[in-house]
Each structure stands twice: as C-alpha cells, then as structure tokens.
Amino acid sequence: MNDSTKFTRLPTTDAERDDPDRATREAVLDFWDDRFGVPPATFEEHTFWERGKGKLWVYRGEPPSPVDVEALGMTFLRTRQEHWKPTLEAVQRFGAHATDCVIHLSEGEAEAFVAGHDQELDWDGDWGYLLVTHDLAGRREPVGVGLYVYGELRSQVPKGRRREL
C-alpha cells in the first residue's frame, strides 16, 4: 500500500504490485518509449518513486525504500488520471532523447508557449501530451509539455514558471 507521507519505490512489474492502479517501472518505461520514443536504456541508472497517488519522482541511484523525506530527485510523471502527464522538469531533462510526439515551435510560438498562451497550430501527429521544442543556442531543446487537442496546442507550463520574453 502506498503511504502518502513516504516515497515508495515503484514495483518493477505487474506481478510485484499490490495495488492494480499503481504504476510499475515497466509501465513507465513503456510509456516513455511508446509515446515519445525515449529508449528504456535512458533510465537505466534511475529509480522511480511514488509519493501520494500517482505522483512519480525519478532519482538517479538506489536509496532504501520506503524513504521518509520531503523530496527525492525530481518530479517526473502524473499517472493516476486518464492520460499520464510528464512534468516540465522531466521533459527538460529527458526530452532530448524523444523522437515521437515532439512539436517544434518557431521563436514567436515558443514565446507564446512559455508565457502560458494556447495557440492554434497544425500538427499531423497524435493528440494528447506533446514534448515542445525550440531552437536555443543553435540546438533543438525541449522547453515543456503541451496538450494538443482540436487543432490547438495548450501550454502546460505551470503558472509560476511562465515568462513573458
């Protein structure tokens, strides 16, 4: 049973979990691979932890489980909702490995996105959460998570992280 006051390591497979609604390491790796094309080997040195219901964290290393601390690694993924949602931090850290469901924005589009504005854009891929990239210092870099539905890219940049550039 997951304790909302402690970080508990995700079970590796379905066979190892007690709660059928709880994510597994295998499911997390499959999600990143299937949705974004991020190879499972990207997370080889990382462990996944849950605190609360569906709030996943990623940590590079192997602390004991459960862990009674306020924070561990970085927030990574929200899983106990209809569609799993990667965090801004996860996308910025691991999004460079993505090959699928990545939308690249022009300078003006990226500025609007980072400011938290929704915008009508053409996208011929799957609807849902996308990794958003923009050219920074001559390289394509992940800047955040967008939700694409009905021809509109909705910025998922948290209010406290939005910037007018």
From TrEMBL:
Instruction: Give the start-end ranges of region Disordered.
Output: 1-22
The identity of this protein, by name, is: rRNA small subunit methyltransferase F RNA-binding PUA-like domain-containing protein
What Pfam families does the annotation carry? DUF7122, Methyltranf_PUA
Tell me which species this is from. Answer: Haloarcula onubensis
**Comp. bias (Polar residues):** 1-11
Q: Which InterPro entries match?
A: DUF7122, Nol1_Nop2_Fmu_2
Domain DUF7122, by residue range, is 2-73
Q: Where is the rRNA small subunit methyltransferase F RNA-binding PUA-like domain?
A: 110-163
